[in-house]
Design brief:
The chain is of the alpha/beta class. The protein folds into 3 domains: 90 residues, Winged helix-like DNA-binding domain superfamily/Winged helix DNA-binding domain (Arc Repressor Mutant, subunit A, Orthogonal Bundle), CATH 1.10.10.10; 94 residues, D-Maltodextrin-Binding Protein, domain 2; 103 residues, 3-Layer(aba) Sandwich (D-Maltodextrin-Binding Protein, domain 2), CATH 3.40.190. It contains 13 helices and 12 strands. The strands form 2 sheets. Strands 3, 4, 5, 6, 7, 8, 9, 10, 11 and 12 form a 10-stranded mixed sheet that branches. Strands 1-2 form a two-stranded antiparallel sheet. Helix 2 packs across helix 3, helix 2 packs across helix 5 and helix 3 packs across helix 4. The longest helix is centred in the first third of the chain and has 33 residues.
Length: 317
């Protein structure tokens, strides 16, 4: 079999016959009167007659038998009519499908976010969807550096992650995060509402191999010392929390991570002296919102951030 005939689109050159030609032909076939058909098509009778003659020329056969302004279908015209109607119906359905896909895509917002913010952001987006039932969301969870690249390349409409001054993208602060210690509830550290970096210096600690913990600690020599001496560096949340539950160590994680994943056995304590914080920001594309739906979502999230308490970084646990 010829491979050219099996591909999705025929390689044969298209005839000059257009859907408009077929539409005029099908309308005249139904009305069988040039003036009445022309009025229905919002044409002059002369323009309709010219189009029919061109259709006949392109097909190579007489389609109508003319008797003044009234016409009847020729034998070939009657044979061609069902094919023309099928093509018009198929084309109409295809156009309707394309419009539907376009409208759906216009209402779909592609969002990249770091996993630790999901429990804070997703309920807000659910609230927005209740206000605008036609909105749809596609979510991609990524570390911040990969998220920034996806915003730059427009794979996502915007991203939510840890602030990065090197991103060279418009940024808007949504939340304040901080480093906290995740401990068992029976840990002696729980006797106080906070824990200092000095108290952690003599404890085995664990943190994520990837992520921002080590970068954030660079601002404090004592914090950096604790992080560098960490007993465990893990890649997955399940491993880190299992180590803490089993009593092997204290975990050092961003507070947003701790908020979303605590169990009945664990709690978290703010780490002070110093308190190390980071901004969680909205990364926007440099060319602005892709659609009105994206603009609506951005405005909503910024308004929500403006209404949030200034002391969001304190949190509760």
């Amino acid at each position: 079999m010829n491979s050219k005939e099996t591909s999705g689109v025929s390689k044969r050159p298209l005839a000059a016959l257009s859907l408009r030609h077929l539409h005029y032909f099908a309308t005249l076939s139904r009305v069988l009167h040039f003036r009445l058909a022309a009025e229905e098509l919002a044409l002059t009778a002369s323009a309709l007659s010219t189009s029919i003659r061109e259709t006949e020329r392109l097909i190579g056969a007489q389609l109508f038998i003319r008797k003044g302004h009234q016409v009847t279908l020729s034998e070939i015209g009657a044979a061609i009519l069902p094919i023309a109607e099928h093509l018009l119906n198929t084309a109409g359905n295809a156009v309707a499908d394309m419009v539907h896909i376009s409208q759906e895509r216009q209402q779909t917002i592609r969002i990249g976010l770091v996993p630790s913010v999901a429990h804070r952001i997703l309920p807000k987006l659910q609230e927005l969807q209740r206000q605008h039932a036609d909105l749809r969301f596609d979510f991609i969870d990524l570390p911040t550096r990969a998220l920034i690249n996806d915003v730059r390349s427009a794979k996502v409409d915007f991203g939510i992650g840890a602030g990065d001054a090197t991103a060279a993208l418009p940024m808007h602060r949504l939340l304040v995060d901080e480093l906290v210690a995740v401990v068992r509830k029976d840990d002696p550290l729980c006797a106080a509402p906070t824990v200092s970096w000095a108290q952690l210096d003599n404890r085995p600690v664990a943190h994520f191999l990837l992520g921002s913990v080590a970068d954030l600690a660079l601002g404090s020599p004592k914090a950096q010392e604790v992080i560098v001496k960490a007993t465990y560096r893990v890649s997955f949340t399940e491993t880190l929390y299992s180590l803490i539950r089993a009593g092997f160590c204290v975990g050092i994680v961003p507070r947003l991570t701790a908020e979303g994943l605590l169990s009945d056995e664990l709690t978290w304590l703010p780490i002070v002296k110093p308190r190390i914080q980071r901004d969680i920001v909205l990364f926007e594309t440099s060319h602005g919102p892709r659609t009105p739906a994206v603009a609506t979502c951005l405005a909503f999230l910024k308004a929500q951030a403006a209404e949030a308490p200034a002391a969001d970084s304190q949190g509760t646990h």
